[in-house]
From TrEMBL, chains A, B:
GO terms for biological process: pantothenate biosynthetic process. Residues 198-318 form the Ketopantoate reductase C-terminal domain. This is 2-dehydropantoate 2-reductase. It comes from Nostoc sphaeroides CCNUC1. The keyword NADP applies. Pathway: Cofactor biosynthesis; (R)-pantothenate biosynthesis; (R)-pantoate from 3-methyl-2-oxobutanoate: step 2/2.
Length: 325, 325
């Protein structure tokens, strides 16, 4: 007689999974609050807003409806947080040197680290830090700002594209854990897309982020300005083709039609100040390595040179270092 | 019996050649004043400073000694200027659309047009405008500013490298006219180098101008800042190698050692705000086409792509157009 017991923290869709939100800002605060409102067990890590939020909770102004959470589980010390099923990394990538101190004690065995960050390569770093967990990457299309302590204003969009991470970014297909996380997010009213190949998804997001984030900072320009001048319009397109060349160097094909769609989409967008431009204007460190440095190094490892992205990268490194002098 | 008469305005070194100076600014005003002081017959075209200079003359403050010319031949109308042996083009290249109205009536048959401008390709344009004249290009290494009407402050350097222009920039070697012009300039205390191949000389000057002029504007930086940050230091070098690739596409070889010399030279230089940065700060049109656009098109015509220079060019076009909105 064989007795077989499957132990899992993800037994059914209906189990109340616990989430740790690392970085309760415009992004982590918004998604975390939505999950708590949907009835999930959420634990927020805060820094500067800890005192305020632990007393007064979180206020979300949103185009989908405003709401307030008067009580939240707020922490300013990772040691005090309970182990969670899902740890959401919603810090800026410029804070990722903190992850080795945060993740191992926080995520349950067989749990999930959900990386909601820009750029490339962060899942690889997470995999080096934690062993017996699943890693899922999420690409957020979100316009949201923190307007005061514990007060987040959600302006537009909000959907998340998630994909599973396996060693060397081999495509995982759609896994059960992805479906379970997606169900939780959907139950909170968040629009979700599942993709079989996270690396392709990340390169596709870079098609937009590399030209617009980079040039908006360097040229002090909004998206509409970059698109209305013929030379920057052309440069944006050339940079997008270089991103596609970088993607191809990793064996991931981005079709020309996708580039055209991104260009058309941006022309139709409202004039937009990119997240990197906001960081620059606020004199916060720029996510240069995750968005530019890592893709360049990935391509370089395959002997593919991306000269215009390299030019933008070097210019941004200069600006990023100079504002911090 | 054959009577052979050689008619020339350049009969001997001692003849007093007449010079027209188009553009009496920091550069044209400085060299023109030096030539007049040396006894040559000089005629200055002015715009905004015409009233002042025609009454009060020119004041030159110079590290080589100050001097004042109380009386100068000043004009604000090209029609009133006498025909001259040598027409010195000392306008910014952004004014070159005016040359077809200026040059034909002003330069004597068998005279010289001396182009003291930055960039590439201007001699070709001049050749299309005037027929029976020699065209000589001059590369000025000069730190000079106009500090008030008719008042020029010469800070450093001053040497001119001149080379003859022939159709398609075929090297002319050292011509008699080059020697005669050089003698006039030397008689005025101006250090002169003669080169056999003007196009090689112009590409070599671009090795400095393209990275430093371009990046100083885009990154709001002086030369010392560009050299003290590792990423811009590297980008400067990469841009220099692209200039050498552009030069090679025209059959002109710039050795690696020249690039190293330019880097070393700039590290040792006093912190310097480039001429293009000064133009940008003063909201004057930038010489983007002469310094960036023409070299790119020359290389493109030989099927050579210069992606990082192209990136800088497109960024500068955006900034140049935007400040004039």
């Amino acid at each position: 007689m064989i007795i077989y017991i499957k132990i899992s923290f993800f037994v059914s869709k209906m189990s109340k999974r616990s989430y740790a939100i690392l970085g309760t800002g415009a992004l982590g605060g918004f998604y975390g609050a939505k999950l708590q409102k949907a009835g999930l067990d959420i634990h927020f890590l805060l820094k500067s807003d800890y005192e305020y939020v632990s007393k007064s909770g979180l206020v979300i102004e949103s185009k989908d409806g405003d709401f307030t959470l008067t009580q939240v589980n707020a922490y300013n010390d990772i040691e005090k947080m309970p182990q969670c099923d899902v740890v959401v990394v919603a810090l800026k990538t410029t804070q990722n040197h903190l992850l080795p101190q945060m993740l191992p004690s926080l995520v349950r065995d067989n749990g999930v680290v959900l990386v909601l960050q820009n750029g490339l390569g962060v899942e690889e770093e997470v995999a080096k830090i934690v062993g017996n967990v699943s890693i899922i990457g999420g690409l957020c299309f979100l316009c949201s700002n923190k307007v005061a302590a514990g007060h987040i204003r959600h302006l537009d969009y909000g959907q998340i594209t998630i994909g599973g991470y396996a060693s060397s970014y081999n495509p995982t297909g759609i896994t059960d854990k992805m479906r379970q996380i997606a169900d939780d997010l959907k139950s909170a009213g968040i629009s979700i897309e599942l993709v079989e190949d996270l690396l392709l998804g990340r390169w596709k997001k870079l098609v937009w982020n590399i030209p617009y984030n980079g040039l908006s900072v360097i040229l002090n320009a909004r998206t509409d300005e970059l698109m209305s001048y013929v030379h920057t319009r052309k440069l944006v397109e050339q940079l997008m083709y270089e991103v596609a060349a970088g993607s191809k160097s990793c064996g991931r094909i981005i079709p020309d039609s996708f580039i055209q769609t991104m260009l058309d989409y941006t022309v139709k967008m409202k004039p937009y100040r990119t997240s990197m431009k906001i960081d620059y204007d606020e004199r916060r460190p720029l996510e240069v390595e995750a968005i530019f440095g890592n893709p360049l190094r990935k391509a370089q490892a395959a002997d593919v040179n991306l000269p215009q992205i390299s030019c933008i990268y070097q210019q941004l490194k200069f600006l990023d270092e100079k504002i911090r002098v």
